[in-house]
Amino acid sequence: xxxxxxxxxxxxxxxxxxxxxxxxxxxxIKKKERLPAILWMHAGSFSSGKRDSSDEVKLMKYVSxxxxxxxxxxxxxxxxxxxxxxGCDCPKADKLETFKxxxxxxLDAAKFIFNHNHQLQIDLTKVIAGGSxxxxxxxxxxxxxxxxxxxxxxxxxxxxxxxxLAFSGALVNAEYITKTNAxxxxxxxxxxxxxxxxxxxxxHYCSPESPGYLLxxxxxxxxxxxxxxxxxxxxxxxxxxxxxxxxxxxxxxxIILQFFEKTVFDSExxxxxxxxxxx
Length: 279
Known about the structure:
Number of strands: 12
Strand content: 25-35%
Domain BD-FAE-like: 21-137
CATH superfamily: Alpha/Beta hydrolase fold, catalytic domain
CATH architecture: 3-Layer(aba) Sandwich
Keywords: Hydrolase
Protein name: BD-FAE-like domain-containing protein
Pfam families: BD-FAE
Number of helices: 7
Order of helices and strands: EEEHEHHEHHEEEEEHEHE
Organism: Flaviramulus aquimarinus
């Protein structure tokens, strides 16, 4: 389990974008073995970032050493090269469309791995949706807001995630999280994040008069919803922390994977809030 092989697949071609997956598999996997998987969506404000950046590669190698199939995906960077970026000058309608298309890209990547699970040797009952910053927004919307963003839900009926891993993420409306769709969720967020709201607040804290005014529900609101529903979650909040909490916390990955082992693999119910005060 201490070395892995990487195989790259094209999961979709959309316009000029050839969207790919890097699949990291433990070399010593047995022929008929099926392993849990993490499908990862990178950060970058929907304008930058790569599936094979150094931190993404490090994460994928780490989880594959722990007995997972690590999958890092590319997706359409729809705000790249735009005049308004993804801040307060970006119109609300454009933000929602960006979220929608990221949701679609993520679900298309998931559909590819679900359809090729035998080849990839993935246990479909143990697929974790993971992402950071923009990627965390993408995966949270894909897991919890499919009815909001997806017109043809039947296309993705076989896609069922077992857990969520989101660093500095938010979704459009936490009321879409229900007892029937809620799954074990890990959240990391700083209370003073000025890009992605920690609680329920405007994206980038834009003023109501700005084109980019869009209310989002961040990790604090999501954790409260999961708490009320009695669903497992692990919320690592840093009081005074900013958007740097979107960085992958390699020193805490063991704790995160142990949470999934207990809640996803062993069906335990665990609700944990860990509060840190930033120095």
